[in-house]
Amino acid sequence: MGYNLSNTLLRHGRPWANLDFNTPVDHAYENNVDDVLAGWVRVPFDLPAFIILAVLDRDPALRSDLLGADTRLSAGILGNLERSISKFRRSGLSEKTLERTTDRQKAFAQLVTEYSTYLSAHQLLDDATILSNALSRDPRSKPNDTAYAILAAKPFVGLDGMYVSSICGKSSGAGNILRTTNTGNGKSEPTESEHVSVRYAIGQKAEASGVIEEVLSRGLCFDEVEIAYTNETGYLADLANISFWLPDAITFANGIPVTLTNPGRALLGYLQWISSGFDNRVLIRLLRSRTITLTTVSSFTKPEYAASNLEKFRAGSGTNELARVARIVEEQAGASASHGPAQPSLFDIPGKAERAIDLGRVLRTFVDYAPAESSVQLMSLVSGCKGFLKAFGPSRNTRDAVAMESIIQRLDTLETEDLVVSVKPAVDVLSAIIRSHKMSASVATPGTINVVPLDKAGCSGRSHVFVVGMDDETFPGRNADDYYLSLAGVAPAEAGAGTREVNEQAISRLIEDESIELVLVSQRADPADGSEVHPAPLLREFEQDPGRIDYSNSVASTVSVRPYSGVIAQYRNDDFIEVVQVAYPWLDSGKAAATARRSAKLTEYDGVLRQATPELSLSSRHNVVSASAMEGLAGCSYRYFLQRVLNVRLPEDPPDDYKWLSALQKGRLLHDLLYRYHSGHGSQKEEGEQRSERLHRILEKLIAKHAIKNPPHNAAGLASDKASLLLAAEIFLAADADISEEEPYALELKFGFDNYGKGEGPLKISLSADQTIMMRGAIDRVDRKGSDFSIWDYKSGSTYSFDSVPLREDVRHLQWALYAFAFEEILKRNGDEGSVIQSGYFFIGDRGNGQRVTDMPPGRSEIGERLRPLFEMVSHGTFVHAHREKSECRFCDFNPICGGENVLSGDLPELESPGERAAMAKNTARKWLSL
């Protein structure tokens, strides 16, 4: 805009030393608000929707006539009414326009009148009042200095146009109204556009990330680059997320969504809780996901502890349920003081009573900020939002702190309003406000990439402009019909330009401006749902007339963080297969494998070998297995074949600059932490606070040790993983305190290793007369109570695959039972007495929340008979990719190899090589999969 503006002034011979760059409304406000409106203030940006809500709440008949009896008030309806009223008041039309005959037209007229009356009574200035006041002034009192209106292609309408004409003269030819023109040839349709090129990408995310990749790969200076988005949804969030790993390198003209920050998500969660009628399942999710924090209100109560108690005491809907749970835990904590030794209490464990009392106080704090009635004063509702955000909104980084301040400042504009509104629609409007709220808006800054909406593109003088979102769903957009404006008789021309017209004008301006290199980016397919995505008609025109743009490299330069996306984007071309074969010749063998897998019969590519494989037998004394390998075989024989027979290894994940430890490294660190903690002296005699302090000291030492061996890329990655490890430590302490009568017997108990000839060798475990396995492994922890033993395997993940079926009934989980058998053998070998009464898994991470999944070990013969088909499958060379449920492949690391090719047990097809062995192999597989 600056470039075009200066050219326009030069062309007309006008100086710009004292240029006042402004909008008509702001110019009118600054130069024409006199004593008549002394003491009046501009209406807060978010208030109009609440004024309309209050009017409709107060007059049910008006609401019924305007919207219909059964229409529920929502943020969308209130927003439409607000825009309609604003446009009508700015159109400059007479009130007589609203004098219609139908009930709905009369209702709209009444709503506009009551809205205007409220503004006048409270001395609030909206744009229409400002412009009307400026137009009513005596012309002799208007400023003497010359004002120039620099207009876009479409003139102002309504009161805006009347005001511009009143100060600049009505003749655009002889007066002071200058219109900017583009610096190209001035035609609406350029004949040549070599400065324009097209890019295609696979998926919306690849558009944004690919633009950044092209900027970096081409070595473009950041302050020469501008990225424009046609649609805010998705694209702005993608670019904002990219700015996390390019700190201080990207500025946003319209700001970034506050919903990308922790405070924004926390406040939305709070509003969702209110809107749901205080369904406390919502609150539990917010606590478990740590969307909200408790550190501001309590240094003692953890979110997981609060969520667990709400679930334990079955908190239903309503704030009274929170008060009930608070009362229960407080009463139980108080009653524990009167229990003698013969009457042990749940809260006799040191620190538990204090923790329960603190939990009660925290739950009552939630109630304090919640609205108590179905209709409240707006200031009270907003005050509750602010209080909740300050108390429970996480602020984990600088961006969160900025978001917190920005949200509170916006809510401050509404906190003084005494309007009485219905809670649910008011909360809906507040949620829409938060979703649309932006922060960190900035002008184009030297040394940074500038991100703008399409209508502002090309105005900062950047030489390289990328436009993302050039598919036909987002560009040029649609002009939604304004029902209420049409009801009031306002023509589209009087309402001003719509989204479609604005976007078309903006893209035309960019195409005509030959001073910039313009890149138009569109996706060709959406990988999220596999749907087809069509480029905008403008790009299709370019495809049909390649001479208008440099199209030759558009696909080769396809933007994407993945190099193969450029090839995939050519899937429409007739020679696509040849292009793929030239680019990736090794894919031919993959194609042969894929063809075999798609065939109607099972082949060796499906894990069914051409001959028996006795050398792979699980009973072979030369084949030493681990419990995890057996569990992997039970979970998916095809994955076992890939991993243990073909020795396929997964590629290492590329290093993430914003993470420190991998999942495997973090799990090992947690295991080391718990081993050192339990190995310490007197761990069972310490008080709760002492145990916590010692565990934290050990963790700090381990983190420091690992940071030396594996230096973190930056402080953010270290802080994030450190917080996760601290959380896991707290979860472990809380869960481990529940077992007060048992004490650790063995930690990291290894068995079956040769230890360079000094060990006992693999441990022999007989399941039946003809089923024997040679095992080695390490049991994380064995607890003892008298002659009874409990075996625990630590898990740092979630309980997802353990929730549906008890351990004894789930053939996929074997480790708990095999470890019980192994420990019994160790006891026999050492001449010790005792028995394993339970074995299972202890989930110590933040996703498992300290849960334990356990059962009494089954008999060996029971497991042997259950595993017999599995033993036979391995001996037959049958490793079919078949499951009981397709969901079993959901989280498999080998999905890139075989994803989507599995079959259900009932659909198992015939083998490629028929015969007795093939029939036996198939029957055995079916028998195993039917368990």
Helix content: 40-55%
Q: What general outline do the C-alpha atoms trace?
A: globular
Largest sheet features: 7 strands, mixed
Structural class: alpha/beta
Low-confidence stretches: 171-175, 181-192, 336-350, 546-563
Number of helices: 34
Oligomer: single chain
Q: What's the rounded overall pLDDT mean?
A: 78
Protein architecture, described:
There is one protein chain. By secondary structure, the chain is an alpha/beta fold. The chain is 45% helix and 12% strand. It has 34 helices and 25 strands. The strands form 8 sheets. Strands 5, 6, 7, 12, 13, 14 and 15 form a 7-stranded mixed β-sheet that branches. A 5-stranded mixed β-sheet has the order 17-20-21-22-23, sandwiched between helices. α31 links the parallel β21 and β22. α5 packs across α18 (423-436). The longest helix has 22 residues, at 688-709. It is globular. The chain starts with a helix and ends with a helix. Mean pLDDT is 78; it is low at 171-175, 181-192, 336-350 and 546-563.
Descriptors for this entry?
931 residues, alpha/beta, 25 strands, globular
In summary, what is this structure?
The chain is of the alpha/beta class. Strands 5, 6, 7, 12, 13, 14 and 15 form a 7-stranded mixed beta sheet that branches. It has a 5-stranded mixed beta sheet with strand order 17-20-21-22-23, with helices on both faces.
